[in-house]
Specification:
Chain lengths: 574, 232
């Protein structure tokens, strides 16, 4: 009986480990091969602190959480910005380093013998002496872990994480500092791992490096994958299966001789099979959301009365007649190796006007766009917005000052609902800060209600309100483009830079998109479009910049430019 | 008709790029396809030779339905495609590239003769026979790509913007070679960004805009036009 309860306690410990890694891996999209190392560090830290200072085990655990989270953050920070592969390699290296440190610093860690006599748990006169007595404590810890994890993942912070997992650049273009989110969730995950490491140490009253091996890290990853990445309940399933099944198998005669050495092989094979055939795990993330029976919705099914008035009621109406250049690009240049993609390019965007940027293939339009929106830094030149220099502003800050961009390849979050895609676009959400989440939940609830109203408003404007709970990947292409516009409007930005807004759209819809662009300008937005379709350019633009070989060749109305034979030669060849 | 595509609908997952489009090429004809970026020209070419499967419509070549048949099979039937992107084997020599292109025709005694034909079209390739393909200039690489596709002596050659990235005089040379190829009996469907050049070479021109053909006209009529802007 005690043996079974002990197994149950161990299973719960792994549930906590799996949930915490799922936060990093499933939600943060970061593959960490060092989770067992953080578990181990937490265990040792809590053990040493309680033994040295004679304090309560909860204080030891709290200290372990804080210190390990800080270490996790410090380690992750330099690697967050690099490619995923490097983070994986780094965590493998860190895992091995920690293991060997635990072995070699034997004066502190006891070397491979570990530390015996770790103080057992004591709380309010209760001092559990056996697994059954410890079980209630375990349940409380599991409950706390789920409380924290669910609170985070179901919050605006969690929403941003989901976006990051799918498309980091898109999240950046909506005004979120992706690095910060990744570091924070890494710290949360490693902190929880350390905490449960402490729990483990005080429960077994023993800690050794054997719990902090690469094999253990892989086991935890297997549990996450099996249960389903980004599904926290799945993590419990994954953890239980991979703890309980080997224990059950142990009861088979002769099994223990086979199972124990083959455990690693079994976990590895399971991992491979799941990643190949069932990467979403046993319980996929949107298990609870019924897939809409409508399937692929054609563009024609959108409400025909979807008129697009883009009055933004939350912001005072701007005077449409006012003009003047608000975004100025002065002589920017950008080279890639020997190739000068943009050469001394200048442009001015006038308020409430539609400016088009055209030119033959490869002339540097998209590069110019990326330079203006902060995704590339110019080698020379300045960019000014409302008189302030924004040349070196990082791209995630652009929406905050009022400049947003769309993408040629749309970049909506396909795995999220239409509504979530729009909600994420709101700027400065207090629910995106973890401290607010736990200490000021009422403020967040109020704000979410406001955000929801705003999101529904813009979805209605573009005619997608009835599809708000649809998973985005089920939308037609035209609907995806409309969603992208709704997202941009939700940011509240006044300057919209649209990269080929009509490309790939059903010809019957091009006119509707043209109408949308014109109405946006009439409502006070400043628009710049990169376009290849000259029909659209002629139909919506107030002024056109003609680019060739990275330079601005001509500037004027569409009619003026198209009357110029020299431009015709450049565009159509000789 | 050598090639006839009828009522094609083509897309990439959710995104439809070509809407109910029909084109045809007659034997020995030189047809150009022009249009703005993103109009669907490359998608159309790829559908015609089998790289993409249309969600509706058919492609008939020499009377046979080849819709969504593998491009490799179509090459053997005389339908060759020169991609916009480099499609050479950079670490192999010019000769090795050509011999590999001859793989489609199998072991045949006239490979030598076909190589000679290729060199006749592009003399610079004979000079640089032993040179590694990646060391050729951009224009020469394009010439090699066309030469490779000509090895199967196609009845129809599809070209996707062969002048992209080339200097004007190389483009002119390429134009002359294409005319030579046509005079040898090969029909050509040319997608070109250099619109003027395309009009000067082709007998008939298609104009594509946002996934649809908006015009099918003769060279004579196109040359009479005062403005091309309204086609884009």
């Amino acid at each position: 009986m005690e043996y079974l309860t002990h197994t149950l306690n161990l299973a719960f410990i792994f549930v906590i480990l799996t949930v915490s890694l799922n936060l990093i891996l499933g939600y943060g999209g970061m593959v960490s091969m060092a989770h067992a190392a953080f578990f181990c560090i937490g265990g040792y830290f809590s053990a040493i602190v309680t033994m040295h200072f004679g304090c309560n085990f909860l204080i030891g655990i709290a200290a372990a959480i804080l210190v390990t989270a800080a270490v996790g953050g410090a380690l992750a920070a330099p690697f967050i910005r690099v490619q995923e592969e490097y983070l994986v390699l780094f965590t493998i290296a860190f895992q091995m380093l920690v293991f060997h440190l635990m072995l070699s610093l034997y004066t502190i860690t006891g070397g491979d013998s570990g530390i015996f006599g770790v103080p057992g748990p004591k709380l309010l006169g209760l001092a559990p002496h056996n697994p059954s007595q410890f079980l209630p404590f375990m349940v409380v810890f599991v409950f706390l872990t789920y409380y924290v994890a669910l609170k985070i993942t179901k919050s605006p912070f969690g929403r941003v994480l989901k976006g990051i997992r799918e498309d980091e650049k898109s999240v950046i273009s909506l005004g979120k500092d992706v690095k910060k989110y990744k570091i924070i969730i890494f710290m949360v995950g490693t902190g929880i791992a350390a905490g449960v490491g402490g729990v483990f140490a005080h429960y077994t009253q023993f800690i050794s490096p054997s719990i902090g091996t690469l094999d253990e890290s892989i086991l935890i990853i297997a549990m996450v994958v099996l249960g389903g990445t980004a599904n926290l309940w799945g993590s419990a399933v994954g953890a239980f299966l991979l703890i309980i099944i080997p224990e059950i198998l142990n009861f088979l005669p002769g099994a223990s001789d086979l199972i124990v050495p083959l455990r690693g092989v079994i976990y590895g094979v399971l991992l491979i099979l799941f990643m190949r055939f069932r990467p979403e795990g046993l319980i996929p993330e949107y298990f609870h959301l019924k897939k809409s029976g409508q399937g692929k919705a054609a563009a024609g099914t959108l409400s025909p009365s979807a008129s697009v008035s883009t009055e933004d009621r939350s912001i005072p109406r701007k005077e449409p007649a006012r003009s003047g250049v608000i975004l100025e690009v002065k002589g920017i240049s950008k080279s890639f190796g020997g190739l000068k993609a943009v050469d001394d390019f200048s442009m001015g965007l006038e308020k409430s006007r539609v400016t088009a940027l055209v030119g033959p293939n490869g002339c540097g339009k998209t590069t110019a766009f990326n330079l203006v929106t902060g995704f590339l830094k110019p080698d020379q030149g300045r960019i000014q917005f409302q008189g302030k220099d924004i040349t070196n502003l990082p791209p995630y800050k652009m929406p905050h000052i009022g400049i947003v961009r769309s993408w040629q390849d749309v970049r909506n979050f396909q795995g999220m609902t239409v509504l979530d895609n729009v909600l994420i676009a709101n700027q400065d959400q207090s629910g995106e800060r973890l401290l607010n989440l736990f200490f000021m939940p009422w403020r967040i609830k109020k704000e979410e209600k406001k955000n929801l109203d705003k999101a529904m408003f813009y979805l209605k404007q573009v005619g997608l309100l009835t599809k708000r709970l649809e998973i985005t990947k089920n939308l037609s292409y035209a609907e995806q483009k409309l969603l992208a516009i709704a997202r941009l409007l939700t940011t509240g930005a006044e300057v919209l830079l649209l990269d080929e807004p009509s490309s790939g759209v059903d010809p019957n819809w091009v006119e509707r998109f043209m109408g949308i662009i014109r109405k946006l300008a009439e409502s006070g937005k400043t628009i710049c479009i990169v376009e290849h379709n000259l029909e659209v350019v002629r139909g919506v633009s107030d002024t056109v910049y003609f680019m060739a070989e990275g330079r601005m060749i001509a500037h004027g109305s569409a009619e003026e430019l198209m009357a110029d034979p020299k431009l015709g030669e450049i565009y159509f060849g000789v | 008709m050598l090639l006839e595509a009828k009522n094609l609908d083509v897309g990439y997952q959710e995104k439809q790029v070509i809407y109910n489009t029909s084109v045809h090429v007659d034997s020995g004809e030189f047809v150009a396809l022009i249009g703005h970026n993103g109009a669907g020209k490359t998608t159309l070419l790829k559908t015609l030779c089998g790289y993409l499967k249309p969600s509706a419509g058919t492609v008939i070549y020499k009377g046979e339905d080849i819709t969504a048949k593998s491009p490799a099979i179509n090459v053997k039937k005389g339908l060759s495609f020169v991609h916009q992107e480099k499609s050479l084997f950079p670490n192999l020599s010019v000769l090795e590239n050509l011999e590999l292109a001859g793989y489609a025709i199998g072991k045949t005694a006239d490979l030598k003769e076909r190589l000679n034909d290729a060199y006749h079209l592009f003399p610079v390739l004979r000079e640089r026979e032993k040179q590694r393909a990646e060391t050729l200039s951009g224009g020469q690489q394009k010439q090699l790509a066309v030469a490779m596709s000509m090895l199967v002596r196609p009845d129809l050659l599809l070209l996707d913007e062969p002048s992209l990235g080339l200097s004007p005089n190389i483009v002119r040379e390429m134009g002359k070679v294409l005319q030579q190829i046509q005079s040898m009996g090969t029909a050509i469907l040319l997608v070109e960004q250099n619109v003027k050049m395309a009009i000067s070479l082709a007998q008939r021109i298609y104009v594509m805009r946002t996934g649809q053909i908006i015009l099918d006209d003769t060279r004579e009529n196109m040359e009479k036009r005062t403005s091309l802007w309204d086609l884009f």
